[in-house]
Design a protein that fits this description.
Elements lengths: L19 H23 L7 H31 L4 H30 L2 H8 L8 H11 L5 H13 L1 H14 L2 E5 L2 E5 L1 H7 L5 H17 L1 H22 L6 H6 L4 H13 L1 H14 L23 H15 L1 H12 L3 E2 L11 E5 L4 E5 L6 H20 L11 H22 L3 H36 L6 H15 L11 H4 L13 H20 L3 H10 L6 H9 L6 H12 L1 H9 L1
Parallel strand pairs: 3-5
Antiparallel strand pairs: 1-2, 4-5
Helix pairs in contact: 1-2, 1-3, 2-3, 3-5, 3-6, 6-7, 7-10, 12-24, 13-18, 13-25, 14-15, 14-17, 15-16, 16-17, 17-18, 17-21, 18-19, 18-21, 18-25, 21-24
């Protein structure tokens, strides 16, 4: 094998969770954060002078970069081996550091808000602050919409063992699950990550068997998962109430720098585009000899004997596809494979799912997934490399200008997926190969326009109900079933009532409503692909600049400035959805 399936963490901090170098790095970070917090606390409630503001801005960004570096390393440790107790202990310590840093940020923001307007214009207009002017103005404005810094500090401190503690408890629940399975005539027990790969196995019997075991496994943990989900939502709602916020979408929309009008325009277009995707699901069911697909059939390959794609083959496919769009993007992919930035080994003990995390001080990324050779695995790999490319494009910017939101982060990743998908389709030699590739593309359309919408509908209704009290597991099952049936237009023959328990995204504490940004990124990237096709090679430079600006503009400003598009109007989204579902006609022709 040319490329390693295991990532290299040693070049970052040698020694894993016992690393003395990492311990020293964290200790220094804690000292810098403590010193910064004391400075801000000692300053008092009067407006700070320009020199102090500049000093704090430099120190804030230094600690922010160190915190992101440490958090990324710990997330890698806990993901590669969920039973690593030292890594879990580091998680709590980094969360404590993060909470202390948030106190500093709240005080810093409050001090920005105290600066009189005239002096603010004079100070923030300095050339050395030009690259962070947008986030500075953003932070100054948001400070007026929160509790006093002292109360925000209390909430942040309590969240370590409360809010974030419940989020980490979900990992404990996942680690309890071990699913019995027969592999090559032997009885084995699969981790959640390994079992998940069986749900889209080419063999219907394998899918059916694992789907039953999967649902049973999560049902066995449903009470614990329900308790965890209720506590997370309860914390958020209490804090929102104290701030005077009455809409649970207020924070996620602000985090994603997008308006309610843009969100509504997007979901409206998705809902209107439902019928072609329902037709695709019907056509696929016919190919499988079924009246309707089961939930676990949706992501199954349409080819009965689909060839496995080796990891080295996937590396070459992705790098070549990227090369046709951007030499820089291809070089990033080569670097990731050659320097072992990717953890892809299929083994027990790993966390389910995939992610890409950046190390801003090391100027590297690490990608986590479990690779088993499916086309979906290749798509996931391309997706995460898109994130890594985005991170590389902003790594030279000041730390505050690197803080782009999830929705535009998902734009870069899904754009990378689209590049790989289009390249593979162009290379297809037979109708069966084309059909399989179109199926893979339409699976993603279903995921982003139906599955993600089901998650959004569920979470929106869950928060509405949670404001009146805790919900039991059976009630959560009912909410999830209703959301799935609405989002899929009742096009499936069976559903996944415990999806709310099985999906990690509902339990993440950094970003509430970890769903709609995916659909935004998918559809926004679809529009970008259309522009790239029209413009040709010259678009890659404009695309790079758009990604560099993702930390210093709202999404509406990004689209207007770089694409001359209005995202709060429905037309862009309707055009994007129409492009997505256009594959259904080609799929139907090949099914004849």
């Amino acid at each position: 094998m040319k490329h390693s399936l295991k990532w290299d963490l040693e070049s970052l901090f040698s020694g894993g969770s016992s690393s003395s170098a990492f311990a020293a790095f964290v200790e220094k970070s804690e000292a810098l954060a403590a010193s910064l917090l004391k400075e801000l606390q000692d300053e008092g409630d009067h407006p700070a002078d320009n020199e102090r503001l500049t000093e704090w801005t430099v120190k804030i960004q230094d600690v922010l970069s160190r915190l992101r570096e440490a958090d990324s390393f710990v997330s890698c440790l806990t993901s590669q081996e969920m039973s690593d107790k030292r890594a879990v202990a580091w998680t709590e310590r980094i969360q404590t550091l993060s909470a202390r840093f948030k106190q500093s940020m709240d005080l810093y923001d409050a001090k920005l808000a105290l600066v009189p307007e005239q002096r603010w214009q004079q100070w923030s207009g300095q050339p050395e602050l030009s690259e962070v002017l947008f986030p500075l103005n953003e932070r100054r404005d948001s400070a007026k919409d929160k509790l006093p810094p002292a109360l925000e500090a209390v909430a942040s401190e309590l969240s370590v063992d409360g809010y974030h503690g419940w989020g980490e408890h979900y990992n404990t629940i996942v680690g309890r699950i071990s699913i019995p399975w027969e592999e090559n005539g032997e009885q084995v027990r699969l981790s959640v990550g390994q079992a998940a790969n069986k749900l889209d196995d080419p063999e219907p019997a394998v899918r059916d068997s694992m789907a039953a075991k999967w649902e049973e496994a999560w049902a066995g943990q449903a009470d614990l998962a329900a308790d965890t989900l209720n506590r997370l939502a309860g914390f958020r709602l209490k804090l929102y109430g104290m701030r005077g916020w009455n809409d649970p979408l207020r924070e996620p929309l602000r985090i994603n720098r997008m308006s309610q009008e843009t969100l509504d325009a997007m979901w409206g277009a998705v809902e209107e585009g439902l019928e072609p995707l329902k037709r695709y699901l019907e056509l696929k069911a016919n190919r499988f000899g079924k009246e309707k697909l089961s939930w676990h059939d949706v992501d199954a390959p349409i080819a009965a004997n689909q060839a496995k794609i080796s990891y080295d083959e996937a590396a070459d496919l992705i790098t070549d596809a990227f090369q046709h769009f951007s030499a820089d993007m291809a070089q990033l992919a080569r670097t990731a494979f050659e320097r072992s930035w990717i953890e892809a080994e299929d083994r027990s003990g790993k966390r389910p799912g995939g992610f890409c995390t950046s190390f801003p001080l090391s100027r590297q990324s690490r990608i986590f997934m479990t690779y088993s050779g499916t086309p979906g695995n290749v798509s996931t790999l391309a997706h995460e490399l898109g994130h890594a490319y985005h991170g590389a494009l902003v790594e030279e910017l000041p730390a505050l200008a690197q803080e782009y939101a999830m929705n535009v982060a998902e734009t870069a990743s899904t754009f990378a997926e689209a590049i790989v998908g289009d390249a593979l389709l162009r290379r297809a030699q037979s109708d069966e190969e084309k059909l399989a590739l179109l199926d893979d593309r339409l699976q993603r359309a279903v995921a982003f326009c139906m599955n993600i919408r089901a998650r959004f509908l569920f979470e929106t209704r869950f928060y509405d109900r949670r404001s009146s009290g805790m919900l039991e597991a059976d009630e959560l099952n009912e909410l999830m079933l209703a959301a799935q049936k609405e989002a899929f237009g009742d096009a499936l023959g069976s559903w996944h009532p415990h999806f709310w328990a099985a999906k990690l995204h509902f339990y993440l504490t950094d970003v509430p409503f970890y769903n709609f940004p995916y659909t935004f990124g998918y559809l926004f990237s679809t529009g970008l692909v259309a522009i790239a096709e029209r413009e040709g090679a010259s678009f890659s430079k404009r695309y790079e600049q758009l990604l560099r600006d993702t930390g210093v503009m709202t999404v509406e400003q990004l689209a207007s400035h770089h694409l001359d598009v209005a995202l709060d109007q429905p037309q862009f989204w309707k055009d994007a959805v129409a492009r997505v579902v256009a594959d259904v006609e080609s799929f139907a022709e090949l099914c004849k």
